[in-house]
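Continuing the batch. This is chain 6 of the set; chains 1 through 5 are on the previous pages. Same settings as before, nothing changed between runs. Recording input and output for traceability.
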Amino acid sequence: MPMTAAARLARRLQVFSPVEMAALSDRAGVQRKIGARARARRKIGATAYMLLCSAAGIDAATGAPATVVPRAGATIVWWMFGSGLFLTRTIKRLDLRLAANLVGVSAATLSRAERCHPVAVESFLRISDFIGIPAESFLCFTQNTNCNTLKVKEPADARLRQLVTAAPR
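Output for chain 6:
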């Protein structure tokens, strides 16, 4: 039976002392208790898993040493992940149940992922593999999960009026 993602991470984290584990958690940008949970092979969220893997220098999908390590402090962009899943499923002309069987997760899990809700680490990794994009590609480092969408601070017409009144005559 293949080793689970949580087991791979826990095995890698066993070499760290509690003090080193606290420093690793800080470097990853996750709470120390989340790092301790991961080291104890308990459930953690997919984002925390990805961050701890990057801080420990291992590939999130395989457990092998990582050649390219993402920056700490990233979050998974769930809407992008769900959109990628929907597009892949649509292109392959698969209904939800058939796609779930191919991926190896339940139809409910696949539906949750497609609706941009967080899923478990194992499901996240399996679905990323199904989509054909590395799991690290769904991480956002800028905290701007809407990419280039800017938040408007004031209505455009008010700004335009201000510019017109301030212009020299």
